[in-house]
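Supplementary Methods, section 5.1.

A reviewer requested that the exact input to the structure prediction be made available. We therefore reproduce it here, unchanged from the version used in the analyses.
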Amino acid sequence: MSAQPGEDFLTATLDAEPGSMIEAAPLVYMKLKSPRHKDRTDVIELVKSGLDVDTCRRYLARHAPAFVDDFNEAVARGRAEEE
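The structure derived from this sequence is encoded token-by-token as follows.
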């Protein structure tokens, strides 16, 4: 996997040694970018497991503002499922 044009912010994450842990915010970005429904569900599950939503929201606002609304929707769904 490699960073696409305009995704320079992912270079360090994707260049990490195979098997390395990925930070949550870039993982959320890649999950939201994916067309797979399962990846959107994964974001909801991350929220339910205690994801730092403020850090992820700031990351998305800085690097991928088009995904902030999708993220906010996933956060709302995750929190609703916890009630």
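The chain has one domain: 8-14+21-82. These observations are discussed further in the main text.
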